[in-house]
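dumping this here so i dont lose it
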């Protein structure tokens, strides 16, 4: 995959010339088109929170996007998208980038985060745990790997970028109760709530068929973007997902009463996202 000639790989990444249309559902707007072109139409400093999971460039089978190409071109493309996100994000905004490594490509998450290094400050590095074993018990969604060399991947990365590295967060909005209640008074806390830390266990239902996830190869559960939006802590936030997929970020934004903008290049995925949103308005 990474040994393709540069001339072939270059065509794999959208160049910002795709036509677009929009779908309105409640307070959510789905822009059907290339994210580079769509982002250029958004006003500067108009978005509070970006939550997204871009293509990983590892050969996943999307309907309208070639997920294989030259690594350097892919990272340069991500950097260009990051520059546009920096323009539309407010100075006190948050950008949450979800991406995972694979056994065959363990560096992709670090490389993708590094593509944002000159554009944003990395304020928090969060681990999203999808499956965990405690003693003899397992919790969450476990995807088997048939290998004698590799361990099963049970987590993904969520990189929290800001423009300054100094954006205040509502940590208690995604906090947990104290186990030792004496800590509440001893440390001067006003409520029985503490920071939950940077390891988030967010399981989702086992997906048994492509139809259950609208034939999208890599959806994430709405609980993940919902936690990111809550952590940022701005009521009535404007939320953006430039790689919308089947719409989990907008589902989360709608549940929290936020305005959302999603950009999706594939019309079928965009329609699936709109359907999910309409189902929640009924």
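and the seq i came up w/
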């Amino acid at each position: 995959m990474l040994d393709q000639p540069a001339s072939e790989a270059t065509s794999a990444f959208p160049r910002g010339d795709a036509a677009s249309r929009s779908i309105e559902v409640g307070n959510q707007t789905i822009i059907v088109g290339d994210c580079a072109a769509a982002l250029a139409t958004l006003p500067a400093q108009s978005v509070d929170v970006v939550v997204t999971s871009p293509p990983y460039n590892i050969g996943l089978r999307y309907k309208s996007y070639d997920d294989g190409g030259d690594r350097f071109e892919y990272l340069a493309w991500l950097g260009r998208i990051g520059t546009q996100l920096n323009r539309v994000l407010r100075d006190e905004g948050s950008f949450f980038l979800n991406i995972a490594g694979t056994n065959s490509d363990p560096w992709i998450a670090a490389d993708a985060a590094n593509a944002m290094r000159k554009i944003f400050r990395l304020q928090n590095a969060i681990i999203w745990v999808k499956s965990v074993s405690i003693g003899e018990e397992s919790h969450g969604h476990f995807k088997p790997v048939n290998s004698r060399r590799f361990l099963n991947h049970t987590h993904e990365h969520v990189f929290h970028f800001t423009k300054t590295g100094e954006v205040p967060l509502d940590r208690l909005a995604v906090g947990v109760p104290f186990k030792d209640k004496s800590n509440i008074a001893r440390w001067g806390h006003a409520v029985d709530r503490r920071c939950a830390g940077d390891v988030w266990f967010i399981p989702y239902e086992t997906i048994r068929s492509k139809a259950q996830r609208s034939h999208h190869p890599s959806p994430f559960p709405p609980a993940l973007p919902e936690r990111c939006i809550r952590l940022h802590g701005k009521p009535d936030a404007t939320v953006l997902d430039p790689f919308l997929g089947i719409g989990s970020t907008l589902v989360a934004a709608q549940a929290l009463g936020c305005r959302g903008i999603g950009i999706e290049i594939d019309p079928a995925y965009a329609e699936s996202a709109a359907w999910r949103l309409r189902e929640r308005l009924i």
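The longest helix spans residues 71-88.
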